[in-house]
Predict the structure.
Amino acid sequence: MMAIERGTRPRGDIRGDPTAPTSVLVVDDHPVVLSGFRRVLEDLADDLGLEKVHEATDIVSGYRSFHKLRPGVVVADLSFQDRDLSGLSLIRRMRALQPDVRVLAFSMHDDPVVVSRALECGALGYVLKDAPTATVIEAFTMVRAGRGYLEHRLATSVAMLTMRGHGPPLGTLNARELQILSLLSKGKSYRVIADNLSVSYRTVISACSSMRQKLGVQTLAELVHVAVSRNKLDLGG
């Protein structure tokens, strides 16, 4: 696959003129969501200043399409089949390849830790899949214009997370560790977690060891306490 020559602008580049037509890549593995989002964008293409709407259904094809097309805006889900939160790595890789790409995370996760991680990975905006169409369009429009977007409730949750001292430590966990921490908070055993995530028992043990080091706890009981406390925080406890 041929890379773009140095000194040339990617197709759909909107750095010089935020109103110039741009292409969009939508990455989501749910056919109904993918077709629905694409239809909304295509129906409003003239109003939104869109040149072309492309789509991809998984991480690999999403990155390949991004590498080839270099769209100005990407709308990306965070969860793909059994690889929950793998969209975080996709966002990070796209931003590494093209730092000025504008990414809108489009997800079902309203966990403030996940939202914070998406923004840290390079998403400019974050909108939930159950949001009204008008809200989704508002989020897309702001991200396309190079402005951040975060619905008030989510923004408040993320801010409170940081204020209460839970932001930076949990922010050091990778996507797999966040998955395991979430399952630990629900009382799942190592074996059940391994089965649920389709990974080895040793992988779960290794991840828990890594999390204990990152979070500054010594035992599994302390790690489970952190996981449960995080759930209480997310619920406003």
